[in-house]
Amino acid sequence: MSTDLPESALSPPPDESSESSSAPTRRTFIATSTAVGGAVIAGGVIGGSYLTGSEEAAAAENVPSSRVSLTVNGTRRTVTVDNRTSLLDLLREDFGLTGSKKGCNAGACGACTVLVDDQRVNSCLTLAVRLDGAKVTTIEGLEKGGRLHPLQEAFIEEDAFQCGYCTPGQIMSGVGCIQEGHTSSPEEIREWMSGNICRCGCYTKIVRAVEQTAGRK
Asked: Helix, strand, or coil here: 34?
C-alpha cells in the first residue's frame, strides 16, 4: 500500500499576502474606512470653519442694533446695543454693575432681580432695547449718601444670607415687595417673593428682614 500523500496535502496553506488585493481583509477595511472618514470630517471642519468665519465676519457687520437711553441708579446712560442683549448683560458687561448675579439665566432663580420703573423684573429675560427712557435700580443704587438701604441693614442684622450669591436679587425683590405693599404677613411675603431662590435655605431670616423693614416704613 502506498504511503505517498497527495500533492495538495503537502502544499502549505495559501498566504494572505498571495490573495488578490481586490479582496481586502477586515483589518485593512477598517483602517481604510477610518482614514477616509477622518479625512472627510477634517475636510468638512476645515472648509466649514472657513466659510463660517466669512459668514460670521459679514454678519458681525450687520448685527441689528439700537441706541438706548436709560437712567441707571440715577445716572443717565446712552449706549448702542445689539438688539439681543439682555438688561443683565448690559449692566454687568457694559456698565460694570456686577451686583446683579447671573444664576440660571432663564428667569427661574431671581438672582438677577432689579427694579425697572420701580417694578421687579428678571433682568436676564428683559431685552435692553425695550427699556429706552426707563429708570433702572440695581443693588448698587440702594445705598444713599454712604448709608445702606434699611433692608440691606436688616439682612445684616438678621443674618439673612450665607453664601450671598442670591442676596442682591433677594434684597431687590424685597424692596419691590415692600413698595408694592405685599408685607401684611410672613405668608404674604413668602408668596410674593417665591420667585427668588436661596440654595442655602435662609428663607425664614429673609422673611424676617423684609418684615422688619416694612414695619419701619
From this structure: helix
| 134-149 confidence digits (pLDDT tens) | 999 999 999 999 999 9
Report CA-CA distances (Å) from 166 to 63, 113, 134, 137, 213: 33, 9, 24, 17, 19
CB 99 within 8 Å of CB 164: no
CB 206 within 8 A of CB 198: yes
| Spans of the chain, pLDDT less than 50 | 1, 8-10, 16-21, 36, 39-48, 51
Dihedrals phi, psi of 152, to nearest 5 degrees: -60, -40
How far is 53 from 59, CA to CA, in rounded Å?
10
pLDDT number for residue 63: 83
Local structure of residue 193 (DSSP, 8 states):
T
Question: Could you tell me the three cell numbers for 96?
Answer: 460694570
What 3-state class would DSSP assign to 66? strand
pLDDT digits (tens, 9 = 90+) for 151-167: 999 999 999 999 999 99
First to last CA, the chain: 124
Report yes or no: 112 and 102 within 8 Å, Cβ to Cβ. Answer: yes
**47, 64, 100 from 83: Cα distances, Å:** 30, 6, 20
Query: Distances in Å between the alpha carbon of 3 and those of 6, 7, 23?
Result: 10, 12, 38
Q: Around Cβ 73, how many Cβ atoms within 10 Å? A: 18
As a whole number of angstroms, the distance between CA 34 and CA 206 comes to 60
